[in-house]
C-alpha cells in the first residue's frame, strides 16, 4: 500500500505542475515511463540490486585480496589443506569460503571467476547486439536480394550445432578467452538479427518512415535514427536475457576444459575441479554453483521485468509464471496509484486547445 | 489544357503498375496492379488541384509518384520545368526541399519515439540548414505559425490530439519552404470540427507563402473548400478534370455525378429533393480492369460502345476549354441518372 500512496502523491504533483506551469512540463520519454514501471516490480528491482552487488564484488576482487592476503592463484599447502591434503572448510585459517583442491582461497577465486563470467557475458552480448541489430536492420530495410542472403545466413547460424563448433574450434585453435568471446558472440547475433529484421519489416511500412524519405533522409539515417529507437525495447530485453546465456556457455566450455584454462579462475573450471572433492568438501561445489545460479537467475528475472515494464500490454501474458505475486501486487496498486494507465495519464496533460 | 510558365507540376501519361507475385521460393510475376494508368494533369503555380476518388483508385500512388517516393513505370513528371521522373535519391535530394508531403494518418506519420522539436527540426538536420539554438528558434517559429504552443517543443507526439499532430506534420512540411505540398488526405482522419481548422490553416499558408497544393481526399466537400480545380479518379484513370465550379455544378461524367449525389447534404430538404444515384456492384479489381471505359460495368448510361472503346479525356460540347471528361455519353444538364440506373437494375 505504501507504494500506492507514493504513486498518488507523485501523480498529484505532476497534475499540479501541469496546471501551474505548462511550459516546464517536459514530455516523459518511454524510458522514464519504463523506469517508473520497473521500480514497481520488486522482483526485477531485487535482481538489479543483486547484479549490481555481483558487479561490485567482481570489480573489488583485488581489494579483497589485499584484505585476506590470498592472491587467486597462490596455493597454501600448510594453511589451506588439512593433514589428508583435502580442502579446508569455510572460515578455517582465514579462508572465508574455504579452499579448493590445491589449497587456494575459494572466495577469491570465485570473485575472479565472476570477472571472467561478467566480462564474457557483457562483451559477447554487446558484440552480438551490435552485429545482430546491424544485420537485422539492413536485411529488413533493404529487403529483396540483400534480405534473402542475410536472412538465410542468419537461419544457417541458428541451425548450427554451436556447442560442437565451439568444442572443435577450441581444440583446433586452442582454448583462450578470445576464442570463447568470438564463438559466443558469433552465436548470439543471429537471434537478435532475426527479431530486429522482423520489427524492421513492420516499422519500415509506417508513414513516418515515408515522411522521413520525403524529407530526403538517406537509408542509414532512417535505419539508425528512425527505426532503431523504435526497436530498442525488444533489443534491450533480449540482450538482458542473452547475458546469462553467455555466462552459462562460458562456464560450460570451461567446465569441459575447453574454455578458461587453469590457473586462471572461472566458475566453470572451478566446478570441474570440484568434481573430485565433492564428497569431502561441499563448499567447493556449492559456492561456485550458487554464484552461477544467482547471476543467471538475476539477469533472467531482470530481463522479464524489463519486458513487462517496456510494454504493459504484455503483462498478462508473461505474468503467468509469477501470477500469484503479480496478481497481489496489481490488486494493491489498483487501489492506489495503479500500475500502468495512471502513469501514462499524468504525463499527457491536455496540451491546450486545438 | 493550358500550358505556360505558370505551370509548376506537369504529369504526362503517368503509369504505375505494381507487379503481383506468387509462388514460394521462385517468385513469378502473375499480374500487374494497374494503380495509375495513363494520367495527365498539370498544377498551376500557387493553385490547388483537388484529387478525388474512392479508396484504392490510385490517388495516393499518384501522389507518391509525383513526390518521387516510388519509381514510375512510364510517363513523365516535370517539376518547375525540370523532368524529375525516376531521379535517383541523391539527385532528388535538393528537389525534396521543393516538394513536401502531408500525410493522412496523424498518428502514423510522426515517429512516436522522437520529440516534436526533433520531428519538425529533422528537415533542417537532413539538409544541414540550421543547428543548435538556430534550429530550435526556427522550429518554434514554425510551431507558432501552425498554431502550436512553441513551449511544447520537448513533448512527444503521443501527448497531442489528432488535430495538433496534423499541425506538427504541416510544420514539418513547411520547414524547408517548399513550392509544392502534396496533401494526402490530410484531414480524413480528423474529427469534422477539427477538419475545418486544419483546412483553414492550409488555405492561410497557401495565401501567405504562395504554396501550390496537390490535395487528395475522398471527401468532396473538403476538396471543394480548398481547390481551384478538381480531378476525379476512378480505377487509376482520370475521368473528369476541370475548374471546380463546373465539375461540382455541372458534372459531365456519370461517375462524378454519382459521387456528388452520394455526398451527404447539410440541408435535409435539399437532400430529399436531390436525385440519388446508387452505383451497382463493387469497384472492379485494378489487376484486371474492365475493357473500354473502366466505369462501364457500373455506369447507368453504359452502351455497347463503352465496353469496346476507351473514351479519351476531351472537352465536351458546351464546356469550357479547361473542363475535360472521358466519357462517350456525357451527362446532360437535368438528366435523371437515378432513373436510368434503376431501370437497368430491375
Describe the fold and architecture.
With about 350 residues, chain A is an all-alpha fold. Helix content of chain A is about 70%, strand content about 0%. In chain A, helix 1 (about 1-20) packs parallel to helix 15 and helix 10 (about 220-255) packs antiparallel against helix 12 (about 280-310). Chain B folds into 2 domains: about 5-250, Rossmann fold, CATH 3.40.50; about 250-345, no CATH class. Chain B is about 35% helix and about 25% strand. Chain B has 12 helices and 12 strands. Chain B has helices spanning about 60-65, 90-95, 115-125, 130-145, 160-175, 190-210, 220-225, 245-250, 255-260, 270-275, 305-310, 335-345; strands at about 5-20, 30-45, 50, 75-80, 80-85, 100, 180-185, 210-215, 230-235, 235-245, 315, 325. An 8-stranded mixed beta sheet of chain B has the order 6-7-8-3-9-10-12-11, sandwiched between helices. A 4-stranded antiparallel beta sheet of chain B has the order 2-1-4-5. In chain B, helix 3 (about 115-125) runs parallel beside helix 5 (about 160-175) and helix 5 (about 160-175) runs parallel beside helix 6. Chain B is globular and about 65 Å long. Chain B starts with 6 loop residues before the first strand and ends with a helix. Classes of the chains: A mainly alpha (about 350), B alpha/beta (about 350). The interface of A and B includes residues 27, 211, 218, 229 and 347 of A.
Amino acid at each position: 500500500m505504501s507504494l500506492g500512496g507514493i504513486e498518488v502523491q507523485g501523480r498529484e504533483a505532476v497534475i499540479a505542475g501541469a496546471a501551474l506551469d505548462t511550459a516546464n512540463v517536459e514530455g516523459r520519454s518511454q524510458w522514464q515511463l519504463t523506469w517508473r514501471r520497473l521500480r514497481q516490480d520488486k522482483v526485477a528491482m531485487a535482481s538489479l540490486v543483486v547484479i549490481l552487488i555481483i558487479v561490485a564484488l567482481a570489480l573489488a576482487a583485488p581489494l579483497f585480496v589485499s584484505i585476506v592476503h590470498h592472491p587467486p592463484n597462490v596455493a597454501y599447502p600448510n594453511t589451506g589443506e588439512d593433514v589428508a591434503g583435502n580442502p579446508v572448510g569455510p572460515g578455517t585459517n582465514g579462508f572465508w569460503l574455504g579452499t579448493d583442491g590445491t589449497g587456494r582461497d575459494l572466495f577469491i577465486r570465485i570473485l575472479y571467476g565472476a570477472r571472467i563470467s561478467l566480462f564474457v557475458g557483457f562483451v559477447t552480448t554487446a558484440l552480438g547486439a551490435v552485429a545482430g541489430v546491424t544485420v537485422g536492420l539492413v536485411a529488413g530495410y533493404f529487403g529483396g536480394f540483400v534480405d534473402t542472403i542475410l536472412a538465410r545466413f542468419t537461419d544457417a547460424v541458428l541451425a548450427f550445432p554451436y556447442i560442437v563448433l565451439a568444442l572443435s574450434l577450441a581444440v583446433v585453435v586452442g582454448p583462450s578467452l578470445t576464442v570463447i568471446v568470438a564463438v559466443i558472440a558469433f552465436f548470439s547475433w543471429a537471434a537478435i538479427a532475426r527479431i530486429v529484421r522482423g520489427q524492421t519489416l513492420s516499422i519500415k511500412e509506417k508513414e513516418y518512415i515515408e515522411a522521413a524519405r520525403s524529407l530526403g533522409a538517406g537509408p542509414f539515417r532512417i535505419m539508425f535514427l528512425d527505426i532503431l529507437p523504435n526497436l530498442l525495447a525488444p533489443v534491450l530485453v533480449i540482450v538482458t536475457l542473452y547475458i546469462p546465456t553467455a555466462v552459462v556457455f562460458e562456464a560450460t566450455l570451461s567446465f569441459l576444459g575447453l574454455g578458461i584454462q587453469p590457473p586462471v579462475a572461472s566458475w566453470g573450471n572451478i566446478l570441474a575441479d570440484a568434481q573430485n572433492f565433492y564428497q569431502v568438501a561441499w563448499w567447493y561445489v556449492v559456492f561456485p554453483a550458487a554464484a552461477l545460479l544467482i547471476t543467471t537467475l538475476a539477469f533472467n528475472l531482470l530481463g522479464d521485468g524489463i519486458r513487462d515494464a517496456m510494454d504493459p500490454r504484455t503483462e498478462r501474458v508473461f505474468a503467468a509464471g509469477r501470477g500469484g505475486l503479480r496478481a497481489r501486487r496489481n490488486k494493491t496498486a489498483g487501489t492506489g496509484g495503479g500500475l500502468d494507465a495512471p502513469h501514462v495519464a499524468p504525463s499527457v496533460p491536455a496540451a491546450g486547445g486545438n | 489544357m493550358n500550358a505556360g510558365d505558370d505551370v509548376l507540376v506537369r504529369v504526362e501519361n503517368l503509369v504505375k503498375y505494381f507487379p503481383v507475385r506468387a509462388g514460394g521460393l521462385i517468385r513469378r510475376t502473375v499480374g500487374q496492379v494497374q494503380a495509375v494508368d495513363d494520367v495527365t494533369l498539370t498544377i498551376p503555380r500557387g493553385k490547388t488541384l483537388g484529387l478525388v476518388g474512392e479508396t484504392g483508385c490510385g490517388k495516393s500512388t499518384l501522389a507518391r509518384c509525383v513526390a518521387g517516393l516510388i519509381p514510375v513505370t512510364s510517363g513523365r513528371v516535370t517539376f518547375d520545368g525540370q523532368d524529375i521522373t525516376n531521379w535517383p535519391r541523391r539527385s532528388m535530394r535538393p528537389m525534396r526541399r521543393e516538394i513536401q508531403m502531408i500525410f493522412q494518418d496523424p498518428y502514423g506519420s510522426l515517429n512516436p519515439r522522437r520529440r516534436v522539436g526533433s520531428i519538425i527540426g529533422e528537415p533542417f538536420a537532413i539538409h544541414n540548414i540550421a543547428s543548435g539554438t538556430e534550429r530550435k528558434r526556427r522550429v518554434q517559429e514554425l510551431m507558432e505559425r501552425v498554431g502550436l504552443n512553441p513551449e511544447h517543443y520537448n513533448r512527444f507526439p503521443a501527448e497531442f490530439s489528432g488535430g495538433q499532430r496534423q499541425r506538427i506534420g504541416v510544420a514539418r512540411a513547411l520547414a524547408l519552404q517548399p513550392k509544392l505540398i502534396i496533401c494526402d488526405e490530410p484531414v480524413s482522419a480528423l474529427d469534422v470540427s477539427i477538419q475545418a481548422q486544419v483546412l483553414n490553416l492550409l488555405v492561410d499558408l497557401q495565401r501567405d507563402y504562395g504554396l501550390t497544393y496537390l490535395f487528395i481526399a475522398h471527401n468532396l466537400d473538403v476538396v471543394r473548400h480548398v481547390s481551384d480545380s478538381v480531378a476525379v479518379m476512378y480505377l487509376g484513370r482520370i475521368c473528369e478534370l476541370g475548374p471546380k465550379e463546373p465539375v461540382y455544378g455541372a458534372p459531365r461524367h456519370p461517375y462524378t455525378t454519382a459521387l456528388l449525389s452520394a455526398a451527404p447534404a447539410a440541408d435535409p430538404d435539399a437532400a430529399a429533393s436531390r436525385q440519388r444515384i446508387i452505383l451497382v456492384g463493387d469497384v472492379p479489381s485494378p489487376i484486371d480492369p474492365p475493357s473500354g471505359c473502366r466505369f462501364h460495368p457500373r455506369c447507368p448510361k453504359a452502351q455497347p460502345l463503352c465496353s469496346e472503346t476507351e473514351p479519351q479525356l476531351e472537352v465536351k460540347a458546351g464546356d469550357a476549354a479547361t473542363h475535360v471528361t472521358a466519357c462517350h455519353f456525357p451527362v446532360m444538364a437535368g438528366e435523371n441518372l437515378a432513373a436510368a440506373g434503376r431501370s437497368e437494375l430491375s
